[in-house]
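Residues determine shape. Take a concrete instance:
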Amino acid sequence: MRRDSSPLDKLLENPRVWRGHNRAHATAGLASGYEALDRHLPGGGWPQCSLTEILVEHYGIGELRLLMPALAHLSAEDSGSDYAEPGWIAWVAPPFQPYPPALQQWGINLSRILIVRPKDDSETLWSAEQALSSGTCAAVLLWPDVLDDQAGRRLQLAAEKGSSWAIAFRPPAARAEPSAAALRIELQASGEGTRLSILKSRGGRPAVLHDVV
């Protein structure tokens, strides 16, 4: 006779519970297009259906270039998704105007790009949460003024619900704050090139990489 599952067994069966050092069962990641980075990410790529935070002191040091190969794949007609057409790539409150020719050079399908310009930061977080949970967005990029732990958890849950990938760009000062993100990285530019630091990686370890992008 099979004994009933204990409360602990039932808890461990919950997909939201992460077991330390359980890399063998890590969900397959979305290839970043940068082999050196993928080697340090559990699943061999960006964590899907979750929140990624990218900390940058100022924009334009390679933070978008880092994402382009993966976003190009997600926007492609043959991305391998279960949908009849590729999902939307939503940009929520970008501090600049995305440049279509540059996106096309990276292979981004411009017909799948959405630009959302909310009136304030509360609308930025609300818009991102709605887009993530809709089930129609493959990825949602957002530039919030503030992202506290509670808001981060809401974005994480919305990404899980909609099977979407959330990418939040934040300042380096956020490093001292708690984060619900599955992955948190920091980019720093210097005369020697760009340094990428993996600060937090669910199922992985911190690492420092140089000149990835």
